[in-house]
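Just scan this pair:

***
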Amino acid sequence: FNPVAPISQHDPGYNPTPSADDKVHVLVCVMSANTPQMNSSVLEKMKSVRETASDLGIPQMAMMTHIDEACGEIEKDLRNVYKSKYLKKKMKDFSATVGIPMNCIFPVKNYSEEIDLNDDVDILILSALKIMINFGDDFIEKI
């Protein structure tokens, strides 16, 4: 596996006739909302991979993590996630740069120091995972 070069027919392990189990069902970009600015070359690579996935009919989504660390308003009350102007701008900027629509970018809070589960955290994570599974199911049905 060479992460800087696309796979070719001559690579060992290349499968010219993959089964449904061997295919990518969903492309998920994961980025931290806490990162001040992502490297432009990384964003360009993400965009390129996303465009290739689009050409192949593979659904795409993004998960924006660490939203509580990125925004004090959300850290105080996670229910403010969709009211935060800061987070909305981060999501819009990512959407404009990479090309993933806003309605396919899901903010999530990471469990880091918590001992007990939190319904507000779980709702965001499980909602994103549910959509991810639905995207994958929809893709499989089209094959």
